[in-house]
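User: Please write out a complete single-protein record containing the residue sequence and its fold in token form, without commentary.

AI:
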Amino acid sequence: MWLNLLTLLLSVCLTLMLGIKPVFAQEAPNFYQGSWPDSKGNYPIRQQYHGSWQVVDRDPKGLNCRRYIPPGEGSKEIRAIFPTGTLINAVRRERGVSELGEESSQNQPWLRVQLFEQEGRQECWVRANKNYIIPIRPEKIS
């Protein structure tokens, strides 16, 4: 008990002295080969799976999740809007292949996301870019 109290007290002191702000979740390490995200902030399509993501979009209206990708070349229908801080789960494709979708003609990758609605499980797509989402380690969510 004393150890937990001491740890909490130390955390509060460091936060106040150093101006460290608490975070909702920690960004996942660079566990894929190559730079991830790339120089444009895009998460390139990989053959590995990462399921947990957090919305970091600064738009006060939230992050649009679209029915089809890429918008502009298909439907622009919005199925959901996620506020900043929302935790989202990627859809796992067969055999664990990448959940990042095909890139649009503008070379913009998209992430397929799970939705759970009254009608059952649905899916939609968000832009796979560090300005909108970041990968997280679920065990670090506080």
Residues 39 and 130 are 10 Å apart (CA to CA). DSSP finds one helix and seven strands in the chain. The chain has one domain: 23-140. The helical segments are 2-18.
